[in-house]
Structure formats: C-alpha cells, structure tokens
Amino acid sequence: MKTAVVILNWNGAQMLSRFLPSVLEHSKGAEVIVADNASTDSSLQLLREQFPEVRTIVLERNYGFAEGYNRALQQVEAEYYVLLNSDVEVTPHWLTTLENYMEAHPDCAAAQPKLLAEWRRTHFEYAGAAGGYIDALGYPYCRGRLIGTVEEDSGQYDGVADIAWATGAALMIRSQDWRAVGGLDGSFFAHQEEIDLCWRLRARGRRIVCCPESVVYHVGGGTLPQGSPRKTYLNFRNNLLLLYKNLPSEDLHRVMCLRRWLDAVAALKELLALNLDNYRAIRRARRDFSRIRHDYDAVREENLRLTTHYNIRTRVCLLWQYYLRRRTTYSQLPQS
Asked: What is the DSSP string of 79-129?
C-alpha cells in the first residue's frame, strides 16, 4: 500500500460520523484506518455499522496521541503514513497533492496541508495553520498564527514552504523516516509530540514542508479545549522536554534559565487573572520537568550525536515581537 490514512480516535463517534465520509470520498487509493484508543462511547459500533470498509485497530487502553499512534502504526504497512485527526474535513486532491510533492522530493520526510478552521472557514486554524516554526526560546508559532492571533487566509501563505514542524492534525510522513527516528515520544502523551518528532527529523538533515494547495478544515480542541488545565500542563511540560532533548549544549543553559523566568511570569499572569487551575498546572509542569528531565539524558545524548543540522529555531524572540513590538502576524516578523 502506498498511503495509509490513520485516524486515532478516542470517544469521537460524533466526529467520525461527521468527517469520516469526506476522508473516504477524497482519499481514493489510500487505505483508511481508524485506531481506537479504548473508547467508551459508540465509536466501534458506529464503525462496524456505518463504515464497514474502514479497517479498525483496537488498542486495549487509552495510550494518548503519541503512544497511540506508535502502537497503531506498528500494525500498518505503507510507504506513507498520514496522521489525521478525527475532527478534520478533507477536500478534493488533498492527499494526491501531498503524495506528488513527496514523490518529487525524496529529501522531504514529512508534509502538511494548509489548515483552515472548520467553524470559520476564511481563517487559519490554530493547531498548524500554514506550517510551524520554533522561536529562539523554544516557543512554537505558525505562518498564519502567532500566540493567540489567528489570521484570515487571503492567499498570503500559498507558496510551498520549508518549515520547522508540521501539525499532527494532518501529517504525511514517510514510514522509513518515522521508523528511523523512532516515531513519537510516547511519554509526551499529547501536545507538542509532533514538534519533537519534526525537530529530530530536521536535525538529521530531512526537510519538512507545508503544501498549501492541499487544504483541510480542522475543528480543533475536540479532546482538550483551549484553557483546559490539562492542556496547559502538557504544553508547558512537553515544551520543556523537547528543548531538553534537542537543544545544542551551548544553548541549553541560557535558554532554560530564561524559560524559568518566563514560565514564572506566565504562572503569575494566571494567578492575577484568578485562573487558579492553570496557575497550578504551570507550577506542576515545571516541578515535573525538573523531576524527570534526567530520565531523558540518554535520549538527549543520542539526538545530539545524530544531529547534522543545527538551524532548527529561528532568531525571532516571539514574546518580544508580539507583546512589545505589536507584531501579530507572521509576515510582520523579521525574516531570517
């Protein structure tokens, strides 16, 4: 099989019913698979009764996004894997556009389509927009989304672009590259695991791109909505872990010291706003990172040993540009 589209599902019967028909209609020639993370809703019944043509992989418990995909893709044979969220509506030619680019560019390990918001179809979607980058201090941002500002899509980012990371909401990756770097880091559970994966690929000299001719519409926040303390915890903890795992030694101490102060400011902001659950989530993320970071020493050593390409982060300081310079769109940032 050339391409396998794999949807990881957890209690997403409503989303599957709504969006799986578009995937089946516009993914001809690919195998469509749903990997179920031990759902307790009617997901499996729905798949049996309404989508019998879809192969189902049933996992015995909820492994989260990262390890769920690791375990599911162990059971899939294809040249290309596509990780696709259950809340994504795809469009005609979305898949062939990605396949054609990958076929023509063997140095490219992974690609994403342009993500637009399903609920506001004229605008980019927060999770991946038109491709992701990492700033000097490790904060992720996108063409089309900086921090909390999401741009309207007027074709301003319609060129194919090399990016630092592709969204896990709709990610095509060569299976050989997936296996070469060991897939996702299952300990992340969810959030920023695709950034960590792409960092490892880029560091080993492989390209990541956004192909905006391929378009999908993403609901977003289906499992953990924005503002969820659980999401806050995972984003802060996992961002620190990916930096610890991947930053060059000469940058590690400086970046981590600055991030300690900036995370304290973020926690204080939540406290002053009386968002006490998010305040505690940030504090706990910092605590847990400090407790477990040395568990990743061997992984860090291996990543640095295999690194051949060091320019993964941009020189942009996103917080400075966004809050102090009032630059709220990607095109306003200094371009290196």
From this structure: SEEEEE-TTEEE-TTHHHHHHHHHHH-TTEEEEEEEEEETTEEEEE-TTTT
